[in-house]
Structures are given as structure tokens and as C-alpha cells.
Amino acid sequence: EKMLDSGGVHVIQTYFSTELSEEVQIKGRAARQGSKGSYSMVLDARSLQSTFDISMTDIKTMRNKSQLYSFLAPRRESKYSSMCKNQEQVVKEAEIKHYETLTYLDNLLQGNEKAALSYLFKRVS
Question: Global pTM?
Fold first, then answer.
């Protein structure tokens, strides 16, 4: 009760999320179920440089203009989009392997040793 009378929970995020949904979830921790609360970010410039491939000059310039968030947001969107495309490729490759494995199992069950061995030799080479 004393906490709520003092303004509620204050959440400090110490990194810039690569996913907007994660940021929204963190912000939501500040004001649960309509209670008072606040939120802020304290970001490490070196982390921003490595995660979002931006220069220290850009960071300082945008921070001085109070535009750092609007500068980072499109870079986050681009990085997230790239991560999604990479993940889609991983899923496609896994799907191919899955169907190859099903074919291998069918060959085993049908007694097709030559095809089953062919699959095994392909997997170990």
C-alpha cells in the first residue's frame, strides 16, 4: 500500500529489446491491473553498438536530440525481421529432415534395406 501511495513500481529496462513485444511486456510490469507505476530505460551504448550495429557518433547525436528511441526502433524492426527470416529457413530445413526421416522409417518398416542404408550413409557423411 505504501508503495502504491508513493507512485507504484518503477521498472528500469537496462537493454533495448530486439522484440517490441518483449518491451511491451516489461513496461506492463510497472502498472499491474490498473495500479500506478512507471517505466524507463537505461541503455549501455556499447551494447547498442554491438546489437544494432550503430556508431557511437550516431548514439550521441540521437541522444542529444532526444531522438534515440526513434532512431533505434526501425533498427530493432530490421533486426527482428532478419531473425524471423533466419528462423523460417531453420524451420524449412527441419521440415525437410523430418520428411526424410519419415521416409527412412517407412523403408525400415517395409523391409527396404537398401533405401534405409542409403539414408543412414547420407546422414553420417
Answer: 0.65
